[in-house]
Amino acid sequence: MNKSLIINFLAALIIAAGYVSPVYSELIKTIGFFALSGALTNWIAIYMLFEKVPFLYGSGIIPNRFEEFKDSIKQLMMQQFFTVENVEQFIETEEQEGEKVLNLEPLLAALDYDRIFEGLISSIMESSFGAMLQMMGGEEALLPLKEPFIEKMQVTLTEMVESDRFKQALKQGLNAHKIGEDIISKIETVIDKRLAELTPQLVKEMVQKIIREHLGWLVVWGGFFGGIMGAAFYFA
């Protein structure tokens, strides 16, 4: 149930009780009026955060300042979450984990070794050794070397990609800082696009959804302390 409605209703009941009570009538009415005053003023203040009230300067501040609010959302996300340092640290962590599970065997297996061998033969035949090989049977003379060549190439490539030098070169190629900057740029573009779609009404509803329930306690405490001040005023 709406806390603001309850506290205002209770304050009104206290006022009514003051008019019918045979004892401490003025005290009860004073407490009731002060409580109602505190609750109502806080409720109006909360209402004015979200709604424009004619002739009341400063009302409707959230929808009126929604552009500044959008900028604040962007700054919060970019400066606290999606910083280059945070993204860079994430990428470096993933790289370190990736070294343990990186498996290049499927990549090596996908290579067309037959085509590599054909390219080798073509290069040899076009070189100064080509004429000599033609006298010894031409390209057919090199075909027995195909299987040993492919096996040796597979072993060599496997050793190469598992070497520390290759891993270091791969890590340098995957520049975490540069990748982080590119990711930040893309994230910022996405955030700008999404924020551009926000309207004052959407901003108002978003903020209301987050804080309205908690702001209701301001009305409750406004009524409570208003009643205490009413009692203090009565006995002053």
Written description of the protein model:
The chain has 236 residues and is mostly helical. Helices cover 81% and strands 0% of the residues. It is rod-shaped, with a radius of gyration of 39 Å. The longest helix is centred in the C-terminal third of the chain and has 36 residues, at 200-235. The protein has a domain at 70-193. It is built from twelve helices and no strands. It has helices at residues 3-20, 25-50, 61-64, 66-81, 84-101, 105-110, 113-126, 130-135, 146-161, 164-173, 176-196, 200-235.
Q: What attributes does this structure have?
A:
236 residues, mainly alpha, 12 helices, 0% strand
Short description:
The chain has helices at 3-20, 25-50, 61-64, 66-81, 84-101, 105-110, 113-126, 130-135, 146-161, 164-173, 176-196, 200-235. It is an all-alpha fold and 236 residues long.
What is the secondary structure topology, with strand pairs?
Elements: H1 3-20, H2 25-50, H3 61-64, H4 66-81, H5 84-101, H6 105-110, H7 113-126, H8 130-135, H9 146-161, H10 164-173, H11 176-196, H12 200-235
Helix pairs in contact: 1-2, 1-12, 2-12, 5-11
